[in-house]
Predict the 3D structure of the following.
Amino acid sequence: MSFLKRFQTSLESLHEPSAYKNHDTKKYVVAYSGGVDSLVLLHCFKKINATARAAHVHHGLQAVADDWVTHCQQTCKQLNIPLDILYVDAKQKSGESPEESARNARYQALQNNLTEDEYLVTAQHLNDQAETLLLQLFRSAGSAGLSAMPASKKIGEHVHLRPLLSFSRNEIECFAKENNLQWVEDPSNNDVSFDRNFLRKNIFPQLKKRWPEVTTQLSNVASLQSNNLDVLEDMAAIDLASAITTQKNQLSICVFEVMSMLSIERLQQLSSPRLLNLLRYWLITTLNKKPTRNLLEEIEKSLINSQADANPDIVFFGYAFRKFQGKLYLLKINNVPTTESSQEWNPISLLKLPDLNLQLKAVMTVGEGLNKKLLDESLIVSFRKGGEKFHPAGRRHSQSLKKLLQEASVPPWERDVVPLVYFGDELIAVTGLWVSREFSMGEGESGWVVEIEKL
């Protein structure tokens, strides 16, 4: 079978019709670096008359980066293929290797460039797959890492295709030479301080002397691991469905967004490997972020299989894990609100609490709520400091605010950010929960309540 026929067969096998509304017209965006692999990929799309355009990412990391742009523009002009130049900041970020920072910036730019119903197509091949498998092996990766690069993968609302994964580097270079294609060489590909280049230059030549089919064999291992991963994810989906639960507390609006909750009792029934598999799947499907094994084991040890009152602070990017009333919470905590200051409030107007992303307003009621006379007073909105007593309307006795919040199943992390409304030194309302018995209205009388809204 010819190279082009193999390519077309590979491409057609990767399509996911359910991914897009328009199944008839396939539209592709080819990530074109100017190198031989992506040039051959682009040339193949031209040869099979597919609807394709190119996108070149300018990382700004090489002195010749502008020359590459010129080369890509000339090539695409010759092929009559539209080209977008995407400029990114690919400088190394904290906690990432230089390669990882550049790769993340590149894929984010490419994904942002996609329009509706377009496939992103990249030129990774058989040798890249074998290198990726070894790199993941040296990082102690599990099935997800050892499955290396999938030939087809969902990215947000789009699909990422790698139709050259079954082609070797040698086959691609031979095709390029046979078709007199001109490409650029990235000088950084010779820098063996990069792990992938070290494998490519120093390790694989030795492996091939001993095992000539090593790249194909390693790629087959990745494929088998991918099948294993599919089974693990199917199992995780079943476990997640039985463990997922809902929030039950009396607060109408919470400051910290609850992304998801799991039943700790259900989690404790799973074996450790099955539990870690579920947690990994949960975080990837909920946050689209891959957790480390250390994080998963810390959640298992410190939150799931720990004493009931143990509640350590475990943070993952802008999210936190908490335990409360038999549930494992995943919370969004991008900004920790400041609640030390108090604010004056005239209830006839809105009160914005930007640190909490909330606003308060007075809503008229009948037979409940606060005395209407308080609408003309200057009130104070503050937060818990500890030791507050409160007598809610409808109750016989006052209690500590802490106990009342516990009885209402308000999670500990929300208790300190519930706005408290004072008239002088008197606590008259706990926003979203209760009004004071002393300042409340009787049956049939007009009153008002403090309503809380998101900004």
The longest strand covers residues 358-366. Residues 214-243 form the longest helix (30 residues). The mean pLDDT is 91. The chain is about 40% helix and 20% strand.
